[in-house]
Amino acid sequence: MSLRYALLALLRVGPKSGYDLQKQFDTSVGHLWHAPDSQIYPELRKMEAAGLIEGEEQVRGTRATRRLYHVTPAGDADYLAWINGPLSYARVREPASLKAAYLEAADEASARAFLDDHIAHWQGELAQWEAELERVDAHGTPMLRERLAVTPPEDHARVVAFKRLGYENLVDRARAEIAWAERGLRLLDELGYPPRG
Amino acid sequence: MSLRYALLALLRVGPKSGYDLQKQFDTSVGHLWHAPDSQIYPELRKMEAAGLIEGEEQVRGTRATRRLYHVTPAGDADYLAWINGPLSYARVREPASLKAAYLEAADEASARAFLDDHIAHWQGELAQWEAELERVDAHGTPMLRERLAVTPPEDHARVVAFKRLGYENLVDRARAEIAWAERGLRLLDELGYPPRG
DNA sequence: CCTACCATGTAAGACGTTACATGATTGG
DNA sequence: CCAATCATGTAACGTCTTACATGGTAGG
Question: For the whole model, what pTM was predicted?
Answer without folding.
Answer: 0.95
